Amino acid sequence: MSAARSARRADAGPDVAGGVAHPAPGAAAPSGEDAPGPWPRGLSRQASMRISDVLAALRIEFPAVTNSKLRFLEEQGLVEPVRTPAGYRQYSPADLERLRYVLREQRDRYVPLKVIGERLAALDAGEESEPVSLVVTEDGVPRSGATDARYTTAALAREAGVEEQLVADLVQAGVLRPSASGHLDAWAKDVVQAAAALAEHGLEARHLRAFRSAADRQVDMVETVVAPWRGQSSPSARGRASTVAAEVGELCTRLHTALVRAGVADLAP
C-alpha cells in the first residue's frame, strides 16, 4: 500500500461498508490522541484546491512543475487527490505540503521516489522527525528553489563573491553557457564558487574545460536512458522522464565523485 494511501486511510472516517473505522491489517488500533495521524499534521485535509491552484502555489518554488509531473506522482502513490463526480482532481493543503516535500527531496537531494515513499510512510507513523518546511538563508529569509534564479554575469559575480572577470573567463572557456537571453542559471553559482577555489591552486578557467566535456557526456548518457519516455506524449511518460533523469544524473555524479576520490587517494605518499 502506498504511503499516501496509508495516510488517507489513517485519517479516514467510518468505513462505508461496515459503518465503523477499521485499522489497517497488522496495525495497532488507534488510541485517540495518541495516534499520530498522517503527515503533515495540523493542516486541513479538506480537498478544495484544483490542480491549477496547486500548480500556481508550487511554481513559486518549483517553476518547472507540470500537470504531468503531479499526475505521475499520483500514479506512484505519493499523493492521492480526491476526485469530484465529474472526475476532476481536488487537493487539500495537506496534499500540497506532501507534494512540496516530494519535490524538494528530488530537487535538493535527488532522492529516488521509492525512498521518498518510505520516508513519507515513516512520517505518517511518527517514526521520523518532521522535515523543515522552508529552506532559509543565513539571514533567515526563505530562498527559492535552485531553478528559480537567473543571473547576469555581474549579478552572479556579486552573489558568488568573486571578481566579475572570473565569471567572464568561465563563459569564454565554455564552462558556463548563458541562455539565449544572456543569463546564467542558478547552478552557475556552484560552478563559479568551485572554480574560484580551484583558482587558488593555480587552475584557471581554461583548465576546467575538461569538466564541461565530461558533464556533457554524462548528460548525453542520461538523455539516452530517458529517451523512451521522452518520445511518448502521455503526461505519465513525461513525468517519469523527469524523475528518472534526476535519479540517473545523481548516480552519475556519485560515480564520478567516487572515481576522483579513489584516484586522488592513490596520489598520497
Which helices and strands appear, and what pairs or packs with what?
Elements: H1 3-10, E1 49-50, H2 51-58, H3 67-75, E2 82-83, E3 89-91, H4 93-109, H5 113-124, E4 150-151, H6 153-160, H7 164-172, E5 184-185, H8 187-199, H9 209-230, H10 235-266
Antiparallel strand pairs: 1-3, 2-3, 4-5
Helix pairs in contact: 1-5, 3-10, 6-7, 6-8, 9-10
Description:
The chain is mostly helical and 269 residues long. The protein contains 10 helices and 5 strands, in the order αβααββααβααβααα. The protein has a 3-stranded antiparallel β-sheet.
Provide the descriptors you would attach to this structure in a database record.
elongated, three-stranded antiparallel sheet, 5 strands, 269 residues, two-stranded antiparallel ribbon, mainly alpha
**Total strands:** 5
Please count the helical segments.
10
State the shape.
elongated
Separation, N- and C-terminal Cα atoms: 54 Å
